[in-house]
Each structure stands twice: as structure tokens, then as C-alpha cells.
Amino acid sequence: MMEHKYDRQSRVMAIRLDNAKEFIQKEVQTFCAEYGIEIKSSALYAHEQNGTAERAIRTLRELAAAILIESGLPEVFWQEALSTACFTSNRLVPPKRKGEQTPKSSEEQLNGNPVDYTRMHPFGCLVYVTVPKEKRKKILSQHRAWKGIFLGYTRTLKQYRVWNISKKYVSIVRDVVFVDSSAPARESYKACFPDSSYWKKPYVASAPLVPILPDPQDIELQDKLNVREIYDDNQRHIGTMLPEGQPARKPNFMVVVNTLPAQQQGKPDNPIIVDETIDDETAKAGQVEEQAALRRSGRLREIEKVRTLRTAIAQSSKVRYLQHARAIEVTAFVTAEDASIDLDLPQSYDEAIASKEKEGWLAAIQREMESLTDNKTWTALSEVPHGIKPMNTRWVFIRKRTDSGILHKARLVVKGYEQRYGIHYTETYALVVNLRTVRALLVIAAILDLEVHQLDVKTAFLNASLPLQERTPIALPAGYKAPTGVVALLLLKSLYGLKQAPYLWNEDLNNTLTGEEFPYKMTRSEVDECLYFCKGMIIVTYVDDFLIFSKDIIMIQQTKAYLMKMYEIKDMGEAKRFLGLRIRRNRTSRTLQIDQEEYCKSILDRFSMLNSKSRQTPMDPDVRLSKDASWPALNEEDHEIYRSMVGSLNYAVQGSRPDLAYTVAKLGQYAHAPTEEHWKVVIWAYQYLSATYRQSLHYNSKMVDEKDLPLLLEGYSDSDWAQTYGPEDIARKSTSGYVYLLGGSIISWSSKLQSVIAKSSTEAEVIAFNHAGTEGIWLRKLLSSILVSLQPQTTLPLPPTVLYMDNTAAITVNTTGGNQQKTKHYDLQYFWIREKIRNGTFRLEHRGSKELLADALTKSLPASSHNYHFTRMGLLD
Fold it and tell me: Residue 414: which residues within 8 A CB-CB, separation 6 or more?
């Protein structure tokens, strides 16, 4: 740190340490040996041999104890007091000694900048924290600030650590008004803190907020194993620094990763919740009777269990825990008061050139400018047309760790929020491939033993040319040395940050793939516009990722060669991962597996459910979700977490987890106003996922004859009549479910609430069949496009697709019309399927409920039935 951060001329030659375990481990010795640093260890229990450090520890302990007592805060804030004592001590000017020049504080000696004492305030004083405008409710009575207790400082950005008196948590804030003469903890202790039982839970000390980086993989945070070792070893040292009577405990340090949407990032108040209490005495009194009733019914105990788990998830969903060595500040007391992970990145060009890494950032900027110039991204302007204001740009900086060291990277980004619709852009949408298309192609690849290769286009958006009417001047980028007379740059090609960049890239790619110069005459599918096919080959695109399917490896190689001439592309070889799906193949046995193990594990970890209690089903079969008024509603914050948890599960459903479809559909119906009951169910679903996150869809085509492909599409349709309870908009409505298999492998599934109330189970089945039929039509068109490409001998139209149902009355209604007196009220849209049956598109067959796969997507089944159905679908460990 001394050599690199502070740019010292002299190297660190030696360090004096005691014989603590963390200082004598191999990693420390290896590090010191690599940099030529001599380790001087004191003898066991000979504290005087390391007197400077021992004296510093004592000084800081005494100072921390003094300010803690003066503030009136409880001993649980000892760490905050110790951090503030360290911060203050480093900025104190020592007494002037005889013959000495004007003394300077340690901070000024190290950094060369005078200390700003206006930022310093009494530990424990009263503060008022401004509530951001975006968080204020549009009512006159809404407070514009909240009261807090000042706990200390952060290392950067002039932010402060504040205890929220009403909500009982620590926030890191910027906009603060200090009342130095008032100490709330001394004046009204009980109003500031929870009762003593609250502190039985581990105190969570928040760390500085770290903004989301453009690419988290570009930043190597810390080796977690080494950090755990540091903590295990430091536990006893921390204990020796606590006041008498304070039990030694392992501190819970964390690094906070902002999970707010991009438009909300950077706001000063993003608190870390430690607990939720209601300090409004009137509200408490009003709840006594209700809570007593709940207690008598046994519901309160259930609710409290849910609340306890919810609190833990609320903390972990906002933060990503790293057992990081902020304890260094407590044990070593380095001059830089906060030893948290250094993720500081320049936020502007000026910050970059003012940093110690100036040369690295300038080199990165130079490389980026050369790349953009070579790409002919712009042309120089000697004047800007009258009435047109050039858009501004900014630099985004990233450090990327490589085997050879740290690589500095810079990217020029347009400030897209300055664009105006109709002036700077007109279209913004970009097509993305349907996951059902990908699964169908992977099944066919297994059956036909196709080659499946993957390409990745680098900086894809920069390849698209801007239309003449959208060519916009941009201001000269910071640091760009323009030729004499150049006042702006006219964009000729797309640049990151432009709203239309995805759309333009999609159009450019389409022109390339369907152009006359392409080695093969490709046709864009009307069923899925991200699918391109020609005789013998299919290409699937998803923004900048491509999959190529073909039996002919030469066709694939020629396609790759042409695309590499057009774009800068990375050849990924045989496809391993696509859209979050891991693809594993056994070419010999013609089997293929897809899974989302990595994604499922990540969301389990995000919500602290990775090692939770396991469940055998995604939802308790005995639970019927409803809008039960006896269950308390979730507060605003937990409501957001609930929606995030359900949304995260939904992506797993879309990819490879049909077993979660019904549960996610039910939970989503209450996303607008969930209660503790719904929270309990979403926890159950995550407990099930924690036991099954390694499951994958198995596509086994060894026994399938490829000549039979046109005959291999089959579907299952079912409904659960009037089993939805809740608010009026969904009460007594039925659930539709369908499953489609290709060659015995599942490629499409759905669980959906019906839009109208069915008067009978037959009507519910007819509505469900309408839902399944529309999907069947789409899949038949998709299969036709694929087979025309890969099996040109296929005769079109395809043979009828078999659809299985368990309701004979519904089959009669869909085929012959049935009893018109009972069906005359049916909506006309549900009868179109009759025509499709008569013209040979579908053929209906009866299948008992126990054998009907779609039954598992209309209700929560017992474990035995659940496992039976989804095993038949190919979902296996």
C-alpha cells in the first residue's frame, strides 16, 4: 500500500510483528519474501518488543472508551467508537516539540493535504438525515428528514455512518445536518434503541456502499478462504480490545453491493436493515388485541417464524457478505483508517488522471480511442449545425486482473438520457430468441447427432451504422486531442449508451446473414425471427451470441470464416453455455442435458437459502393460497424482496425447471399485495430448490428413429377447476396447464390462470385446450421450419399432433360440439380449435389423470405424484 497507493520513493524493508497466528502463516511469509520484506517477530509474551503497536492499541482503546461513555451509547457500538477513535487520532496534531517545525497530523503527513476539520463532529451527536425526493410520499405530512445518531465516518465521498433511531439500523448517508450539542442516547436512551433482547442477535455493522461495476467478473474481490482464516485468527485479538465485561465475538463485516435499478444508484440513503420495530405507541396499542387473537389461534407463532426468516433474507438480499478484513483497522490500526476492499474506480476522466494510476488509465483511453477510430465510428466536425447541441459522453473505467497483473480498461459511453425520441432515435427494440426454440433445436440436435457450435461477437453494438437522420454530433471526449479546428464528432456508427444501439445491431446482423455475399442463402424464420435457416444449417442469434446447427462441419467452418471477416468474433467451439443454460452432450449415446445449476445456486446464495431445510415438493399440497386478512401484509421493503424472489424463480422456470411453473404462477398472482402466508410459500419453494438445484432436463434420443421426427410432437392439456382463492380479480378462476414433448423430451410447458370463470370442469378443460392449442400451432410451424432445413425430404404439412386430455366431455365438445344447451354460452374464441381438429392439425386422445403430465402444472401434488410426472418429463438429478 505504501509503495503503490502513496507512491513512496523508498521501499518497505521490514515489518515488526508479534507471533500471532495470522502473521506467521505461509501466505504472509511468501508475500514478504516475494517483495524482499524482512519479518521481525517479537518473542512470545514480550509485548515491550513491539511497544509502538502496543501503545497505539492502548491509546485507541482509551480514546474509544472515552467517546463511547460520553455519547451514552451501549457497548455494542464499541466497534463504531473504535473506528471513529482511529479516524480522529490520525487527524490530531501532536504537541510541538522544542526545535521542531510546525507539527502535522498523521493524515497530512501521509497524503499531503490539510485536514478538513469541518467534517468532524462529536461521536453520538444528534443528526437529521435528508430523505431523498424520490423516497418522499406526495403528501404534505411526509417528513423530509429522519433523526439519527452519528456513529462515524467512511473513507471516501464524504459520507457518514448514522444510526436510524426509529428503524434501528445503520445507514451510510451524505446529506446530514449535525446538532453537535445534543446526544440522544444520553437524553432518551430507551427511545433510541430496542430492548435488551434485541442485542442477542449479532450486530451487523454496515460497510461503505460499493456501486455495481459494469462487469463483476472483471474485479477480483478477495480470496474468500484466506479471508476466513484471517477472521478465525483475529477473533481472539478483537476480544482483547473490548471493554471489561464485553464478550468476545466474531464481528459480522460485509461489503454492500447496490442492488437498486440503475436510475436509483448513487442516492445517499441505502440502509442495511438490522431489525424492524414499531416505535409508534398508538400503533402498538392498536395491535394488542389482534395479536392476542392470533396467539390464541396459534397463528402468531407461525407468523413470527416467517418474520424471523424474512429479516435474515432482507439483510442478505441487499448485501453480499464477504468476511473481509476490515478487522485490520481494529488490530493493526494502519494510518488509512478503513482497510476495506479497494474497489475505488475513477468516476470521470479528471479522477482518472488525478489518480496514482494515471498512466494505466491514459493507456486504456488511448487504446479505446484507437479502436473507435479504426472502426470509423465518427468523423470530425469543424462546426456544429445551428440549433443542434452535441450529446455528451463519459468514460467508464474498469480494472481487470490477469495472470500478468492488472489491466486497465476504458470504454467511451454516450449519455443516452440526453437523447430525444423522434430526433435522435425512433426504434429501440431488439429481438431475442425464444427459449422454446433453443430447447427444440437441442432435442433435434441430439436425435440427428448435429454439430452445435457457438460464436460470441465482441463489442457487437459498435458494428452497426447509424441512419443518416440519426447521425448525431457528440462533444469531444475528455482527453481526446482533436486536430486543430475540430469542435465536435459526428457519429457514423453506434456507440454504447445509445438507446437505438440494440435495434441497429439486430438490423445489421440480419442484413449480414441474409445478404447475397453470405456463403449460403439464409432465410429468416417467420415463427422466430432470431432463427435463420438454409438447406443443411440453422443459425440462432441472441444479441451477440450465436448457435450454429448442422451435420456438415464444413458448412459451419465456412460460416464462421465469413462472420469473422465481418465482425470481431470469438469462436467458442462446441456449445457449452447459452442464455444461462449449461449444455452437456454424449455424442455416443445421443443424449443431451440442459440445466441452470449455476443460476439456481446463485439465487439461493443471494437470498441465504443455499443450505436451508430441504423440501420434496415446490409447494405444500395442503396449502390453498388466498387473500386471508388474518395474515399481516408485507411492508414495502419486504414486498420488493418477495417480488425479487418470485421473479428470480421465474427465470429458472423459463429455462429448465417446469417443476416450479405452477408454484411461481400462484405466487405471482399475489405479487401486488403479498402477506406473511405468501412469504411462507416462497420460502418453501426456495427450500425445495436448495434440494434440487442440480437437476437437469435429460434429452435421451437413442431409441428415436430420426425418420419419425414429424410424428414425435405430442402435447398434454389439463385444468384445475375453480381452485383459485383470493381477491375478486382471480377468485374461483381455473388454472390451465400444458406440456409438449418432442421425441419424448419436454420442450414447452405452461401454467396459467384462466382469464374467465368457468361454470364447469368441462368448460375449464375447453379453455385449457384453447391455451394448449395455440402453443401447438406455433410449435408445428417451428418444427416445419427446422425440418425443411435439416430434413429436406420431410413432407409438409406435418401429420396431426396428438393432444392428450383427461376429460371425455371436453373431448366431445372439441370434436363434435356436444350438448349445445350446455355450451351455448362459451366464447367463440374457444371453438376455433374444432376447425384445427377437422383439418388434421390436432388429434385428441383420452389419458387418465394419473398419466397426464399436464396435471402437475395445474395443482400442487404430493411428493410421489410430483416426482413421477417430472421424472417422465426428463427432469432428473
Answer: 391, 392, 393, 474, 491, 495, 496, 497, 498
666 grid coordinates? 400462484
d(CA 144, CA 129): 8
Task: Identify how many contiguous H helices and E strands the chain contains and give both numbers.
Answer: 25, 30
699 forms beta bridges with 592
The cell numbers describing 370, all together, are 484507437
Q: What is the Cβ-side half-sphere exposure of residue 780, based on CA atoms within 13 angstroms?
A: 21
Q: What does the alpha-carbon distance between residue 14 and residue 512 come to, in Å, rounded to a whole number? A: 62
Cα–Cα distance, 276 to 373 (Å, whole number): 55
- The closest alpha carbon to 470, from 529, 414, 396, belongs to 414
pLDDT band at 734 (very low <50, low <70, confident <90, very high): confident
Kindly state the cell numbers that stand for 654.
423459463
C-alpha cell at 550: 448442422
pLDDT at 684: 93
**Which ranges constitute the DSSP H helices of 398-480?**
435-448
855 alpha carbon, distance to own chain's centre: 32
Element (H, E) at 490: strand 488-491
CATH number of 704-877: 3.30.420.10
> What does the pLDDT read at residue 432?
86
Identify the pLDDT of residue 267.
Answer: 36
Rounded percentage of the chain residues whose pLDDT exceeds 90: 27
129: Cβ contacts below 8 Å, ≥ 6 apart: 145, 146, 147, 148, 162, 164, 171, 173, 175, 176, 269
Residue 292 has pLDDT above 60, yes or no: no
On the 0-12 / 13-18 / 19+ scale of CB atoms within 10 A, 317 is: buried
Residue 448 has pLDDT above 80, yes or no: yes
The pLDDT value recorded for residue 303 is 53
Q: Is 101 exposed, middle or buried (0-12, 13-18, 19+ CB in 10 A)?
A: exposed
Burial of 273 (0-12, 13-18, 19+ CB in 10 A): buried
Sheet of 160-164, strands arranged across: 169-173, 160-164, 145-153, 126-130, 176-179
| Average pLDDT in the chain | 76
Tens digits of residue pLDDT in 767-786: 888 888 999 999 999 999 89
Which residues in 374-431 belong to E strands, given as ranges? Answer: 378-381, 393-402, 405-414
H or E stretch at 63: helix 51-71
Domain boundaries, the chain: 46-92+114-306+327-331, 349-579, 606-693, 704-877
Please give the pLDDT value at position 573.
92
- Determine whether 574 is exposed, middle or buried from the number of CB atoms within 10 Å of its CB (0-12, 13-18, 19+): exposed
Q: Is the pLDDT of residue 23 over 90?
A: no
Can you give the pTM of this predicted structure? 0.61
3-class DSSP string for 747-789: EEEEEEECCCCCCCHHHHHHHHHHHHHHHHHHHHHHHHHHHHH
Paired sense of beta strands 713-720 and 801-805, if any? parallel
409 Cβ contact list (under 8 Å, min separation 6): 218, 364, 368, 397, 398, 399, 400
Q: Write down the pLDDT at residue 537.
A: 95
Mean pLDDT of 730-742: 85
With cut-offs at 50, 70 and 90, classify the pLDDT of residue 297.
very low
Write out the H or E segment, with its range, that includes residue 509.
helix 501-514
* Phi, psi dihedrals of residue 186, rounded to the nearest 5°: -80, -35
Q: Please check whether residue 499 is in contact with residue 419, taking contact to mean a CB–CB distance below 8 angstroms.
A: yes
Closest CA to 148 of 133, 169, 134: 169
Inter-residue contact 617 to 688 (CB < 8 Å): yes
Distance CA(67)–CA(96), nearest Å, equals 25
d(CA 619, CA 742): 28
